[in-house]
């Protein structure tokens, strides 16, 4: 299983497609997602072994030039990040709920990884850019203490990178709300 993830985010769809092709040709990585996102941006998410992903992201940043928005390289990503990106998560039970929101897709992937590594948490959804004006959000669950610890870890990173929009904590979400999250 690939243990590294890389993201390059672009303000140009055409440059994003071109750079994604170059990243794939220069490194042995696989695409997790390569798509346009709102508002007219493009993101390329790749995975593979650490050295290959690091090399591909380096190529992506260089070729993005003035069209680059943000980028991420996580060498030992939490394995629960991948199913959260693809919407293949199904928590056993939603106790407390954490919601993190950023202006950057790349930053949100770093945040999600840090959140999941900070405590015993389960991802619910990791939405990246589509129908969000280019923003991203991450919802996750666990007991109250774990969700609060995850929130603290995520907020610190998002603030440090300058892309935090908001973060909310719900100790006991209503069943009607929970049904909309799954």
TrEMBL record:
Compartments in which it is found: Bacterial microcompartment
Pfam families attached to this UniProt entry: BMC
SUPFAM superfamilies named in the record: CcmK-like
GO CC, one annotated term: bacterial microcompartment
Domain BMC as annotated: residue spans: 4-86, 96-182
CDD domains assigned to the protein according to its UniProt record, in alphabetical order: BMC_PduT_repeat1, BMC_PduT_repeat2
Keywords from the named record: Bacterial microcompartment
InterPro entries hit by this protein: BMC_dom, BMC_shell, CcmK-like_sf, CcmK/CsoS1_BMC, Micro_shell_prot_PduT
Keyword Glycoprotein: no
Family note: Belongs to the bacterial microcompartments protein family.
Protein's UniProt name: BMC domain-containing protein
Species: Holtiella tumoricola
